[in-house]
Amino acid sequence: MSPRRSVAEARLTRERILQRGVAVASVEGLEGLTIGQLAADLGMSKGGVLGHFSSKPALQLAVLDAAADAFLRIVWRRAEPEQPGLPRLRAACEAWIDYLEHERGIFPGGCLFTTAAVEFDARSGPVRDTVARLHKLWRRLLATEVRTAVTAGELPHDTDPEQVAYELVGLFMALNQEIQLFAEPQAAQRTRNALNRLLAAG
Amino acid sequence: MSPRRSVAEARLTRERILQRGVAVASVEGLEGLTIGQLAADLGMSKGGVLGHFSSKPALQLAVLDAAADAFLRIVWRRAEPEQPGLPRLRAACEAWIDYLEHERGIFPGGCLFTTAAVEFDARSGPVRDTVARLHKLWRRLLATEVRTAVTAGELPHDTDPEQVAYELVGLFMALNQEIQLFAEPQAAQRTRNALNRLLAAG
DNA sequence: CCATTTAGCGACCGATCGGTTGCTATATTG
DNA sequence: CAATATAGCAACCGATCGGTCGCTAAATGG
Asked: Is residue B7 part of a domain?
C-alpha cells in the first residue's frame, strides 16, 4: 500500500511522528505514549512508526530531544538577544510564562519536562538520565544569568545564583500546575508578583 | 485455597492493599498502578484485590484518600497543636520538609499528590477532580494560616495569603523534585532559605 | 444447627501492549 | 537500465491490561 518514500519524505515522516509524540506525551506522559496509538493518530502502521526508532525508550528519548528543541526555540531564543544579566533573565521568564500559557499547540498537556521529571524521578535508565540532564542544563542557564546580574550589581551582592534558580524552577512548576489543574487566569500575575520579589534589586 | 476471611480480616486486607497501592502509585503513578501487579505483590489473585474496589478508578480514588490521610497525619497533626498563625505555619512547613525527605516508607517515589496532579492535570474524570479537590483543600489550609498570621501582625499587613500559599506550593514541588531527581542533600536547606524570605516579618 | 453471606481464588475474556518478520514497491546508486 | 537499499505495511507473537464469572469454604445470623 505504502511503498518506499524518498529519504526526504522519510525525514518529514520522522518529524511528524515526533511532533505528534511531543503533544501526546505532554498529555499522557512518556509512558502513556504508545506506539499503536501514535501510529493510528498518524494513519500509519506500528511497524512504520517503530522503523524510525528502534524501541520505545529510543522513541521517548527522541521525543525529549524534540521537546527540548521546541522549548529552547520558544523561550531561550527570545531571551538571548537581550543584555546578559537581569534583562535577559527577565525576558526568559516572560517567554517562559508565555510558553506555559499559550503553547498549547505544541504542548497541549502542559510542560513536558515537568511531566517527565515527575514520571521518571523514581526510576532509573536512560530516559530518567536524559530528563535529569535537561533539567540541570536549564538550571545552569538560569544560574549563569543570575550570576551575571549579581556581578553587574543588578541583584544584591549576597545573592546565591543556585538558590534563585532553584526557586525559579519551583515557581514555574506552580504556574504549570495552576494553568493545567485549575485553569486559573490569575496564574501569570501571581508568577510575576513572585518574580518581582525574587528578582528585586534589594 | 483461600476461603472466606472474617469481616475484620477483610478490613485488614483492604488496608494492606491500600498501603501497598499508595507506595506503588508514588513510584509508578496512579495509572502505572496495575491490579495484576498489586495482586502479585500481595500474594493475592486479581479477583481478590478487585473485590474490595469495584473498578480501577475506584481503587485510584481509594488510594488517594488513603494517601491524604497519611499526609494529614504526618504533616498537619504535627502543626495543629502549635499557635495558629506563623508558628503553626512554620511547624507545618517543617513537617512538610520532613515528609518529603524521610517518609520513603509510605511514599517511596516521592509526593503522591505532585505525581497525581501532573499525571491527571490534562485529563478529566473523577480521579482528576479528586486530585484537584485535595490540592485546593491543602492550599486553603495554608492560606488560612497565612491570613491569621497577617492579622496577628506576624506578616506584613499587605501580604496576599493566596499568593503566599501559591508560592509555598511551588517551593515544595521544587523540593520534591530536588530530592527525587537529584538526591540533592542541600535541598532542605534551600527550602528553608526560601521560607525565611517568604515568611519574613517584613 | 442450619441457611445465608461473602472473602478470595482461578480460569477465562477481548483489547492492547512492545516488538518481530516477511514482503512490496519505489528511490537511489552504479 | 540493472542492482540494491529501504520506507512503510500487514500479520503475527507472547505478555499484560482491566474486568467477569462460577465456585469454595468459612464466618455469620436466625
From this structure: no
